[in-house]
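Troubleshooting log. The previous structure file for this entry was overwritten by mistake, so regenerating from the original sequence record. Sequence copied from the archived sheet and checked twice against the printout by T.R.
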Amino acid sequence: MNRRDLLKMIAAATGTAMVGDAIAYVDQMPAATTLKDSDFSKANFATLEAVCETIIPRTETPGATDAGVAVFIVGYVTDCYTDEQQTTFLSGLSEIASRSKTETGTSFVDMSAEQQFEWLSKIDVEATSQVQAGGGPHYFTLLKQTTLFAFFSSEAGATQVLRHVETPGYYDGALPYKKGDRAWA
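Regenerated output below.
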């Protein structure tokens, strides 16, 4: 008997409400979303990867590329975003690619890290203005939020960038903090 059959048998014997009804549907769960299964083109993925690395670059700690942020985002956007959010997100990636080429003469992916940072800073100001004016979500706001979520949810982000103690122990409301200390995961 394999583990999956055993879990189904336990769920049937004890009641699925106790262990969750998802176990009963393990065989029917969809496979993880890949680039091939998504609406992301190879060009969009390359732009996404470059934008993520610009938002969280590699320093003495891992960056977005090291943590596989772009790969996570493809699945997250495909599986969790509404159709409207997906359209905003994907058209935003296309806009970054085309607009950077028009404004600078160089595609975003081919810019230096400094140029990418300066160019995205300008887009970030536009996004902030749009949100403050009461407009809908700007594509860059979605991109930035998803990048941060993906990175700090990753093993590299949670254990190498944030401070992490697997079993933290007791609560200490007066824990000493020095400026520059890393946040806790």
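The two ends are 39 Å apart (CA to CA). Archived copy saved in two places this time.
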